[in-house]
Amino acid sequence: MGRPQVLLKEWDPEAALQAIEDHGVTYLFTIPTMLYDLVNRDPADSEDAYDAASLQYAPTDGQNVPVDPRSTLSSPM
């Protein structure tokens, strides 16, 4: 009956990507600004590449999302 929730104490794109990879997160509900942080981060700013391929749904609300996050989130970040 459902899956465990993974919560962050504060927003950090690196921590979010690490949690997605570590816990196999499949559903990410966030605001557009945070989704934008994930898909537009510079991988060169991090020593690690993250595997977010488990992510199946990332609904958002509040404003238009100007990018299609599927292509970015489906490849190692």
Question: What distinguishing features does this structure have?
Answer:
77 residues, mainly alpha, 0% strand, globular
Would you mind describing this structure in some detail?
The structure is a single chain. This protein has one domain (13-73). The chain is built from 3 helices and no strands. The protein has helices at residues 13-23, 32-39, 69-73. The radius of gyration is 12 Å and the shape is globular. The termini are far apart.
Rg for CA atoms: 12 Å
C-alpha end-to-end distance: 31 Å
What fraction of the residues are assigned to beta strands by DSSP? under 5%
Proportion of helical residues: 25-40%
Task: Note the total helix count.
Answer: 3
Number of beta-strand segments:
0
Major beta-sheet overview: none
Spatial shape: globular
Return the structural class: mainly alpha
**Average pLDDT value?**
81
